[in-house]
Write a structure and sequence with these properties.
This protein has 213 residues and is α/β, with parallel strands linked by helices. It has a single domain, classed as Uracil-DNA Glycosylase, subunit E, CATH 3.40.470.10. Helices cover 42% and strands 15% of the residues. It has nine helices and eight strands. The strands form two sheets. A six-stranded mixed beta sheet has the order 1-3-2-6-8-7, with helices on both faces.
């Protein structure tokens, strides 16, 4: 058994904890009206890699944790294949409350609107600056457009590093929900997309290991 003296605890990040508490009451856009709770990021509060997804869905809204539904399971398996522990990275979203639409009488997830993405910007930059990662992985188009370039085309420009003025390297990758949708439509395209996701995560890992903070 490991002695407690040899366990190295992750240093805390009290400023990030304070931001999380403050965000729980956020009403910066109308999404607060339909949410169960605000879904802030989780993971290593001093991670070298920060993953920025799109928005919480039903599972995330219910649990208060990012990427815990089917897309999250695919992301976890891709992280594992890339040799990255989920607890070693910090995972968050461009929007922290679930965007919903009513279709055929039931409530479904929808993509976040530009105004909602803009309203969430202060929380986004606080999380990035307080975690202080060397590499930010933009998971899917909305995150890549918000953080790298509003004209970015994810299928053409994923897997490349963009060195930004904040000293961090940004890289876009495919959203696992998009990869999942390919599974029933085109199995070869699914395999290629999943392999690309893993390869982008691996690149992020290599870059974070060599890039000084
Ligand atoms: N779950 C999240 O937390 N974010 C996404 O982008 C998708 C699913």
């Amino acid at each position: 058994m490991q002695s407690s003296a040899s366990v190295v605890a992750e240093p805390a990040n009290p400023e990030l904890d304070a931001v999380r508490l403050e965000a729980l009451d956020c009403q910066r856009c109308d999404l607060w009206q339909g949410r169960t709770q605000v879904v802030m990021g989780e993971g290593n509060p001093h991670a070298g890699i920060l993953l920025m997804g799109e928005a919480p869905g039903a599972n995330e809204d219910a649990t208060g944790r990012p990427f815990v539904g089917r897309a999250g399971q695919l992301l976890d398996s891709a992280l594992e294949e890339a040799g990255i522990g989920r607890n070693d990275v910090y995972i968050t979203n461009v929007v922290r409350c679930r965007p919903t639409a009513v279709k055929g009488g039931s409530v479904t997830n929808r993509a976040p609107r530009a105004g909602e993405i803009a309203a969430c910007e202060p929380w986004r930059w606080l999380e990035i600056s307080l975690v202080n990662p060397q590499v930010v992985v933009c998971v899917g188009g909305p995150a890549a457009k918000a953080l790298i370039d509003k004209k970015l085309k994810i299928t053409e420009q994923r897997g490349r590093f963009f060195d930004k003025e904040d000293g961090r390297a940004y890289i876009a990758t495919l959203h696992p929900a998009y990869v999942l949708r390919l599974y029933s439509a085109d199995r070869d395209a699914y395999r290629t997309a999943r392999a690309n996701l893993v390869s982008d995560l691996r690149q992020a890992q290599e870059r974070a290991a060599t890039k000084p903070r």
